[in-house]
């Protein structure tokens, strides 16, 4: 009996070791957004280092508008991907790195949540600095500006993150 248990345990461990290889990139950003399928993989997983995918998402303005409509973002401090206005003192080219929990969500949904968290952080900063709006809101992932409502999002095993830059204006 003891011999059978040892052989069974050895077989299970061997099977676990063989199945521990890095899987092929099967992650997708599913349609959970107002814009539908909105995120595309620009850098996939690397073998052996856990999930680490970079997405380029094109639904930034739609996500912000939906968050305002749902009351998640303040409507009194608008967030704009375009420029304009005079930045308040210490309000030019501010950068924030925000994350969101990715457990139980598609990568696309989690990326939107991280984007909304970044917009909310800028709204809070605007309130502290006496600003009335956020302009020039854009992705700044790896210090690479990305305009036009697109943003890059890094998805790991348990969370996603975005890096955004903006101006707080009067």
Considering the chains and any ligands shown, give keywords for the structure.
globular, 30% helix, alpha+beta
Topology, number of strands = 6
Termini separation comes to 79 Å
Would you tell me the overall average pLDDT? 83
Q: How many domains, as an integer?
A: 1
Structural class: alpha+beta
Q: Which range best describes the helical content: under 10%, 10-25%, 25-40%, 40-55%, 55-70% or over 70%?
A: 25-40%
Radius of gyration: 21 Å
| Contiguous runs where pLDDT drops below 50 for at least 5 residues | 12-36
Task: Report the sheet-strand fraction.
Answer: 25-35%
Shape: globular
SSE ordering: HEEHEHEEE
Concise description?
This protein is α+β, with helices and mostly antiparallel strands. The chain is built from 3 helices and 6 strands, in the order αββαβαβββ. Helix 2 (60-69) crosses helix 3 (107-129).
Protein architecture, described:
This is Excinuclease ATPase subunit. This protein is an alpha+beta fold and 170 residues long. It has one domain. The protein is built from three helices and six strands. The protein has helices at residues 2-19, 60-69, 107-129; strands spanning 39-43, 52-57, 94-101, 133-139, 151-156, 159-169. Strands 1, 2, 3, 4, 5 and 6 form a six-stranded antiparallel β-sheet that branches.
């Amino acid at each position: 009996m003891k011999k059978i248990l040892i052989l069974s345990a050895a077989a299970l461990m061997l099977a676990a070791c063989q199945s521990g290889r890095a899987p092929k990139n099967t992650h997708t950003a599913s349609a959970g957004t107002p814009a539908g399928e909105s995120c595309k993989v620009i850098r996939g997983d690397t073998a052996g280092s856990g999930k680490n995918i970079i997405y380029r998402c094109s639904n930034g303005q739609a996500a912000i508008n939906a968050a305002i409509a749902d009351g998640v973002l303040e409507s009194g401090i608008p967030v704009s991907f375009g420029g304009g206005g005079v930045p308040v003192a210490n309000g030019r080219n501010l950068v924030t790195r925000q994350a969101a929990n990715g457990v139980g969500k598609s990568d696309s949904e989690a990326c939107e949540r991280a984007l909304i968290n970044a917009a909310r952080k800028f709204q809070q900063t605007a309130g502290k600095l006496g600003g009335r709006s956020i302009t020039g809101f854009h992705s700044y992932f790896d210090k690479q500006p990305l305009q036009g409502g697109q943003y890059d999002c890094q998805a790991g095993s348990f969370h996603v993150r975005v890096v955004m830059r903006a101006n707080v204006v009067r």
